[in-house]
Amino acid sequence: MKLAQGVIMAWGSVRAHPLRTLLTVLGVLIGVASVTVLVAIGQGSTRQIEQQLQSLGTNLVAVNIIGRGTLNSLSAEQIDRLMDMEGIDAYAPVIAGNVTVKAGNRSMSAPLEATTADYAWIRNYEMERGRFLLDIDNALAQKVAVIGPEVASELGLADPVGETVMIQGVPFRIIGVLESKGSSIGGSNDNRVFVPLQTSRVVLRTAAIRTVYVRVAEPEYVPGVVNLLNLRLTNLFGGTSGYSVFNQQEMMKTVGDISGTLTAMLAGIAGISLVVGGIGIMNIMLVSVTERTREIGIRKSLGAKRRDILFQFLVEAAMIGGIGGLCGIAAGLGGAWIFSRAMDMPAYPSPGVMLLAFGFSLGVGLVFGIMPARRAARLDPVEALRQP
């Protein structure tokens, strides 16, 4: 039997029972659609995180002080000595905390970071209006502040630059508003307040530095800088438990690995429904063999060979799986688009995964169609013709 003839006969059989075919296809459709949507969401989330990390630069290194014994922070002088090495373009110590910001009769709680002028360049912050902190602001401990657009909105400041706000009850003059940067792994980048490092005692009641952001000159210098920082910090703390050094490149790799694993797990779980759909195909094909016993007997009596009968039913099972796969891909694309719009998150359907899911749906049809097809091929033509 030729392939074209088998396809025509299989299509005729599928069209003869539209409702039954639809219910059988549904299991495969749900499986393929689930795989398509979940992988699209997983890849979209991974790309979003990678873009956020890349926006900070691949040559960013963050040093966090955990503390060991009596040493639980660093001073500005210790950081200057620690960062005195080739390959570092700039570094910005940070003292962070939450504060209450008030303007007029409005107030809000916001994260505050006391830092230096290089912070904006190191973390890729742009200004919407005004300016960022300067070295002179830090040297003179000026009571000036840079705020994010979300803070300006919450405080009802239409033109914030030049306005005075109260931070922990202390008046600060706003000198700049950051350009909107959205959210990242650490939360909203627009709900931030920045003040000079030397004013941290005024608003945070501490001068203990536990975070330093470092800008390495070139990405290829990052491993060497990280190794030297680890060596110096180990000597300073007498071990590796008192600090942590985060490398942006390693973070991107880790995030990619985790996201890839989770996406694979979700796709595997969704793939189970494909197997369930395959069982449905096998069940329907067994019913079809029973219903068409007399037809099989007539075909065999007219000269059809066992392999012809086997081929006919395998093509029919593969066709049901293929229809389910195509409909599932269409449903998956639609579902990914709806999810992306509803949740305001990117979703990137993978052509490779969709092709694999379609091939798997064909394979499911073939695998689960083998037993019914073999049963049909083994029917005795004389016994088959006796069936009513």
Summarize the model shown.
The protein folds into two domains: 184 residues, no CATH class; 175 residues, no CATH class. 56% of the residues lie in helices and 19% in strands.
Note down, in words, how this protein is organized.
With about 400 residues, this protein is α+β, with helices and mostly antiparallel strands. The chain has two domains: about 180 residues, no CATH class; about 180 residues, no CATH class. It contains 13 helices and twelve strands. The strands form two sheets. A six-stranded mixed β-barrel has the order 2-3-10-5-7-6. Strands 8-9 form a two-stranded antiparallel ribbon. β2 and β3 form a beta hairpin. α9 packs parallel to α12. The two termini are about 25 Å apart.
